[in-house]
Amino acid sequence: IEAGFSExxxxxxxxxxxxxxxxxxxxxxxxxxxKIREYKDMQEIQMKHQSSCVQLTEQLENQSTELLLLxxxxxxxxxxxxxxxxxLYQEEQSHCSEQERMKTEISDLTEELHQKEITIATIMxxxxxxxxxxxxxxxxxxxxxAKQQLLDFQYKVIKSENTRLKEMV
Length: 169
What we know:
Blueprint (H helix, E strand, L loop, with lengths): L1 H45 L3 H119 L1
Helix pairs in contact: 1-2
Protein name: DEUP1 protein
Organism: Ramphastos sulfuratus
Subcellular location: Cytoplasm
């Protein structure tokens, strides 16, 4: 987008330079036109060189035609320049609004990420507590199992002793 803006700015500068050159040429032509008119007036007063007057008149008409063409061209170029400036302004506005939208989206995503990090930390803390509880319960069950096995062994010993005593009696 910035390359497009740069290209449009360069185009605007080029159009501006052309516009100034056309204005300068118009001023020069106008100055020449005034000089030609003065010369023509002098010729009419002196009534000499009528062919020169005709020639000067033709040149004046040609230059007037050129001046009109330049003025029309200048007007077209000004309209084109205005269109380019409008388009450039619209592009800049679009770019700015896109940047704002992206900033908002990044901010929202950052907030969402922060919330997820908090959630993960909470879950990890709970998992750690559950793991400790599970280890404690496993240790208690291991102790109870060992106690149960000891009691089973003692029961078997007593039972075999009982059986032996019964046989003796």
